[in-house]
Amino acid sequence: MADALSLPHRKAGGLSWPVVSLGLWQNFGATIAFDDQRRLVLHAVDRGVVHLDLANNYGPPPFAAEESVGRLLARDLRTRRDELLITTKAGYRAWPGPYGEHGSAKYLRASLDRSLRLLGVDCVNVFYSHRFDPATPLEETLGALDRAVRSGKARHAGISSYSADRTVEALAVAASLGLRLAVHQPAYSLLNRWVEQPGADGRSLLEVADDASMAVVAFSPLAQGMLSARYLHGIPDDSRAARGGPLRTEWLTDEALDHVRALDAVARAGGRTLPQLALAWVLRDPRVTSVLVGARTAAQLDENLAAVALPALADDELAAIEPHAVDAGINLWGARSSEL
Question: CA 309, 314, 320: angle at the middle one, nearest 5?
Fold first, then answer.
């Protein structure tokens, strides 16, 4: 087995994070054979990807991904638990009724308890508020995170998809509770640069997080697959877009794909694949602690990990990228959380 530290780490928020983390948002539901899930997770851990990122709604159905990881922690990974960062979140719908989503203390506490049972662990390394809830006071939402940390059910607390302004508010509330927000998990990619936009005080989300010494774990760095090279020549029948996944076919416009093709050309000129270019670009910023990849196969994961071993993007590459690193309207989470 490979030494986990063979994959570079960046330290922030009181933790050491591998620069590439495995997100279990997709490919870990009931429709995917457990043996396939097992092979991918064990391969990732052996390659040094020791951060496994979960949420209560990851599946489908909800909690399916946590159940799968729980089976692995009980058997294949039983002796390696202390090597791993296990993180989970609550905020999206996990069960019916008014207390099955959003940011109430009742929902967050019940969700975390269920996650811990399925994972078969006493605590997770990070418990996140998965999205801002305008109907619940931040004092209640963050109070639930504070209780999770104080009770020992979570080592650290985090937030996900909160805008720069909401993050400023959350940090103030957390400080009043004596709670440290260790990490922010936002979407960030060449085609979704919202974390760079200034908030009301002139600071971007990246700047707010940096000023607070928060880790930033960027999800969807491949823009839900738009930057995977799968869509350079149309929409494959077996693709996420064709299956009705989170990548919507209406986003795959001629204009957007022209930018993707141009980025692919820059990647090939520099001896990279398009996914490797996309990951290197997000990681070019030292304020980004880790990128979450949602690989479907070991080969895809290995291609992503190879991005770390390649030389940093040169100035001429960055200049060639910039005209094509444009918003493609793919921020699923904007209207649900970050723009509230």
Answer: 120
The tokens for 335 are 């209207």
Q: Annotate 211-258 with DSSP letters as a single string.
A: HTT-EEEEB-TTGGGTTTTTTTTS--TTSTTTTT-SS-GGG--HHHHH
φ and ψ at 16, to 5 degrees?
Answer: -105, 120
Whether this model's pTM surpasses 0.90: yes
The answer to whether 45 touches 79, Cβ cutoff 8 Å, is: no
- Residues 133, 141 contacting (CB under 8 angstroms): yes
Q: How far is the C-alpha of 22 from the C-alpha of 278, rounded, in Å?
A: 16
What type of residue sits at position 281? W
Tens place of pLDDT per residue across the chain (340 aa) = 444 447 999 999 999 999 999 999 988 999 999 999 999 999 999 999 999 999 999 999 999 999 999 999 999 999 999 999 999 999 999 999 999 999 999 999 999 999 999 999 999 999 999 999 999 999 999 999 999 999 999 999 999 999 999 999 999 999 999 999 999 999 999 999 999 999 999 999 999 999 999 999 999 999 988 998 887 876 665 555 555 566 667 777 888 889 999 999 999 999 999 999 999 999 999 999 999 999 999 999 999 999 999 999 999 999 999 999 998 777 766 655 555 5
CATH topology of domain 4-338: TIM Barrel (3.20.20)
Please, what is the Cα angle at 276 between 235 and 317, to 5 degrees? 105
- Dihedrals phi, psi of 329, to nearest 5 degrees: 70, 30
Q: Are 190 and 328 in contact (CB under 8 A)?
A: no
238, with CB counted inside 10 A (0-12, 13-18, 19+), is exposed
Neighbour-count burial of 158, counting CB atoms closer than 10 A to its CB (0-12 exposed, 13-18 middle, 19+ buried): buried
Give the Å distances, CA to CA, from 214 to 29, 98, 100, 120, 239. 30, 31, 28, 28, 35
